Amino acid sequence: MTNLDLHQNAHEYRFAHDELFRFRVNARSARLFGLWVGKILGLAGDGLEDYASRIMSASVTHAHAADILDHLASELARREIMITKAQLIAHQDTLREQAKAELTAHV
Fold first, then answer.
1. Which CATH class is domain 3-105?
2. Digits of tens for pLDDT over the chain (107 positions)?
3. What Cα–Cα distance (Å) separates residue 47 from each residue in 15, 40, 70, 91?
4. To 10 degrees, the CA torsion angle through 18, 94, 102, 40?
5. Total-model pTM
C-alpha cells in the first residue's frame, strides 16, 4: 500500500466516523428534545418514552427539521402552551450541545 492509499483510507475512515458521530448526536438530541416537549405536554411514563421515540425517528428519517418544529409548535399552540418556535429552536440547540458533550465523554 502506498502512502497515498494510506492517506486516502485514513481520510475515508475519519469521514465515516464523523458521519456516524453526527447521526448519533442528532438522534440523541432529538430524543432529549422529545422528552422535553413531551413533559411540557404532560406526558409521563411509557407515553413520554413513546413520544420521544417518535420525535427521534422523525428527526432521523425526515429531511426537513423545520417541518418537525412547525408540527411541535402547532401542537403546543393547540394546547395553549405559549412556547415560540424561536424558543423551541434555542432549546433544541442547547440539547444538541448536551448530546455532543455526552457522546464525547463516552468516546
1. mainly alpha
2. 677 666 677 778 788 888 999 999 999 999 999 999 999 999 999 999 999 999 999 988 876 778 889 989 999 999 999 999 999 999 999 999 999 999 999 76
3. 37, 13, 21, 21
4. -120
5. 0.84
